[in-house]
Amino acid sequence: MARIQVFLDTDVIISALLSQKGASFEIVNNPNIKKVISKTIEEELNEVIKRQGIKKEKTITEGFKTISLGLTKEKLLESYQELVIDEKDTHVITGAHKSGSKFLLTHNTKHYKSDEIKNRLDISVLKPGNFLQYLRSQKENK
């Protein structure tokens, strides 16, 4: 089976660091899921880890594909702002789109206009637990 690619929001990785139970941990540690983050997500992650004093596993993002968005803040807002509730989340949907991911995994689904994102970019915005349910349903249908 081909590895399915997902773009991870910072909160999913933080959740996996804080608990070895739950969907976020399962996704981050599943070798059959190709995880993608942006350099901006990586910077956010390091900032949150430092600010909250979270013990970081050195290998938490090892094996993740990290992409550069290659756009100015103005271009990000121009291209993607109407897809998010808060413009601070524009870089997340941009990363998911630029990486070619069909899934954006986040605990903050209310920050995104999911229907518009699905219709315009063909990206499903899901919580980690819902994504795992989707994967299980795909296995059952085969």
From TrEMBL:
> Cross-referenced SUPFAM superfamilies, in alphabetical order?
PIN domain-like (SSF88723)
Q: Which InterPro entries match?
A: PIN-like_dom_sf, PIN_dom, PIN_toxin-like
Q: PIN domain: which residues?
A: 6-110
Entry's Pfam families? Answer: PIN_3
Output this protein's name.
Answer: Putative toxin-antitoxin system toxin component, PIN family
Q: Which organism is it from?
A: Candidatus Woesebacteria bacterium RIFCSPHIGHO2_01_FULL_38_9
State the taxonomy lineage: Bacteria, Candidatus Woeseibacteriota
